[in-house]
Amino acid sequence: MLQVGHAAPDFSLPDADMELFDFASLRGKQHAVLFFYPKDGTPYCTQEAIEFSDHEEEFQRIGAVIIGISRDDCLSHADFADKHGISVRLLSDIDGKVGHLYGVYHYREHEGHKRLHVVRSTFVIDKQGIVRHAFYDVTPKGHAAEIFQIVKGLNHSCKSAKTPS
Predict the structure, then answer these.
(1) Domain total for the chain?
(2) pLDDT > 70 in the chain, percent
(3) Residue 3 domain flag
């Protein structure tokens, strides 16, 4: 699993509009909140994506972008976003490579078959691309507001670090 203090792995993935998003493009410009979720349209995933969308403008005001990632394809993401009014960028990690880099996909044995399991996870990554907070087995309700306070605190600690003594 990815740990606090590690460099966040770079990646490029397509979004719901089938446009390629390059994570490295944020470096030096914005903090990032990456949330990995199991599946478009399921109750908890819908709740989580809606809550992040509801807070998106607040995150933008403090210099952070929110990105949701699942193994669903681009068309599924587009339908999911349209149906539920989700405004945050949703990326498609169909082959699971990015999820494996972030340590959120695990194989579990079920009835004699190994199945890929997604651990609902959120990463707060600073402008320099360093993981500042990593949350695994996230409970969606209220999570976006909690993450907002963490990013807001990250901004404060960055300003404090730059203030001369």
Answers:
(1) 1
(2) 94
(3) no
